[in-house]
Amino acid sequence: MARILLDSRYATADIKIDENGVKYLDWFGDRKFEVSDFTDNVEHVVSSGDTVYSIASRYLEQQRHYWVICRANQIFNPLKKLVPGQKLLIPSIKSFRSRIIGQD
User: Fold this and answer.
1) N or C, which end of the chain is more exposed by having fewer CB within 10 Å?
2) What is the 3-state secondary structure (H, E, C) of the chain?
3) What is the pTM of this model?
4) pLDDT, tens digit (0-9, with 9 covering 90-100), for 17-62
5) How far apart are CA 58 and CA 61, in angstroms?
6) What is the pLDDT of residues 45-56, one digit of tens each?
7) CATH code assigned at 22
8) Using only C-alpha atoms, what is the Rg of the chain?
9) Pick from 51, 7, 33, 47: which is nearest to 91 by CA?
């Protein structure tokens, strides 16, 4: 398991609970969304070597959008290794742009 350095932004992340009892990380002005609200999600089966960064690059066009994968799948540590065979729900690029980051 990857270590989180004390001077990392992840070391000071707060795990909060919303009004529905769902845990979420509040690291960088976390944009709250419920992936279950989207009808065009993609299911990704984790392969050996996959990371939230590589999956974000593949589905959401940039690694820096890894936080969407984390938020959608309640992954609280983006540095933790993913398990091959694990299923992740990924918002479509259309839902990501229009409903998560507010682009048309």
Assistant:
1) C
2) CCCCCCCCHHHHCEEEECCCCCEEEECCCCCCCCHHHCCCCEEEECCCCCCHHHHHHHHHCCHHHHHHHHHHHCCCCCCCCCCCCCEEEECCHHHHHHHHCCCC
3) 0.69
4) 777 787 766 654 556 677 777 888 899 999 999 999 999 999 999 8
5) 6
6) 999 999 999 999
7) 3.10.350.10
8) 14
9) 33
Residue 2 lies in a domain: no
Of 77, 102, 50, nearest in space to 90 by CA: 50
Does residue 4 sit within a domain? no
Q: For residue 84, tell me if it sits in a domain.
A: yes
Q: What region, left, alpha or beta, does residue 95 occupy, with left being phi > 0 and alpha being psi -120 to 50 degrees?
A: alpha
Residues 2 and 30: their CA atoms lie apart, in Å, by: 22
Distance CA 17, CA 25 (A): 9
Q: How many residues does the chain have?
A: 104
Indicate whether 3 pLDDT > 60: no
